[in-house]
Predict the structure.
Amino acid sequence: MTEPAICRSIAALRDTLKPARMADERIAMVPTMGALHEGHLSLVRRARQEADRVVVSIFVNPTQFAPTEDFDAYPRTEERDVELLRTLGVEAVFAPSVGEMYPAGFATGVSVGGPSVGLESDFRPHFFNGVAVVVTKLLLAALPDVAVFGEKDYQQLCVVRRMALDLNLPTRIVGAETVREADGLAMSSRNVYLSPDERRTAALIQTVLTEAATAIGDGGDAGAILAAGRERLAAAGFRVDYLELRDADTLAAVTAGTASRRLLVAAWLGRTRLIDNIAV
Amino acid sequence: MTEPAICRSIAALRDTLKPARMADERIAMVPTMGALHEGHLSLVRRARQEADRVVVSIFVNPTQFAPTEDFDAYPRTEERDVELLRTLGVEAVFAPSVGEMYPAGFATGVSVGGPSVGLESDFRPHFFNGVAVVVTKLLLAALPDVAVFGEKDYQQLCVVRRMALDLNLPTRIVGAETVREADGLAMSSRNVYLSPDERRTAALIQTVLTEAATAIGDGGDAGAILAAGRERLAAAGFRVDYLELRDADTLAAVTAGTASRRLLVAAWLGRTRLIDNIAV
């Protein structure tokens, strides 16, 4: 059990990581918004496999929430989060204030085209600009060799990969498999919003994804399969934002030249928005 | 005399700098577009004062030129540039191709508000987005402790400072004083475009700047002084884009609370655009 250093400032984080860096140890980072669950912990374990030292950031980033979204309601459980990380041998927890990340006069934006087009962007047009700037800032604060992102936010993973390559970020981006509840629901900090009834219904998302992916993989007509999937979700009470098949690397529309495909879904249950995805 | 390593790729640059970084030596970078003159060399000397190792980048960045501008005509003199840098003890020259910097699928933009508003942006609206992305890429390729930029491009210096702060770039931005010809003309790679007649006229820019700065500093009416300055330049054959007084730190409009002021000018002589600035 390591006692993680709790760093509130970029300067403190850099000081904490400096000895490891000078010893040429490998550093891995797991950016999170806190409210940690087993999904996050699996990312931390993956980070430990990739590096000698692990830093986890906990920062609920206001710039990736629209005014209508759940920034204020987003669960904040820092004490418990740090307790969980203590058991995993984390070197540092970077938990800055909003003012530390966005000081007075802040004026810089990062935008990523390519994989950010469509899907989430059609429903959360501000989202990836917010993600791009905060991920850039977090990675440049810690300068990790590796950063681990969950495949649950698959489009985000693709956007971060593209951005890291484009900006020459000195960090390799690793995607880690989604961790699921016993009934298949992807773990998410937002699952706490679900009522007991909604929670039971929620598992249908993964059922629909799995069955559609199998049917498409078996050569079925993707258009018809996706339309049926959307209907099945709607019949169960979901409001579907999208259920779409895309190129797994670029997230562009699937063409004859597409090497691998990914099926992605976003749907509301009551006031909770759930996303998930699966390889085809 | 050090033989500078000529690095064509980001990977080669990182390999070249790795031993210095692991020895905890300080690295300074001077980003340039080549066609080096005494102004650049003074930046390199300043970089040597700031660090143990100096890396100079030579890259004519297409994304900061508009289609109507002089990207193709911009002077390229790499062999001579490297010869000059050899005498200054430069560790590495980073001279990537356009394809190395902007590979297929490149999709990321960096935009800086604040100091980029107005002045150059009114006449070159694409310019600072191009600068922001390339400077981010160059600094992240080399990860210098310090980067030296000339005050001749004063607005660019302010934009880069803002961006470095906002993105948590691990690099301190240093501004270095403008180097001038005997008659006061600020050194610039674009001065080679001037005809002999234009070259004689060009020095008037600094005369007007100096006299206006003195008159404003003495408490004169800035509006009237600037209008007279614009007229004097126009009478000598310049087409003035702007001659403006701004807050020296934020480049915002001057108010009662402004701590220090900067006078900035851009004007055309024939087909050559000249810029300059001075503290008030």
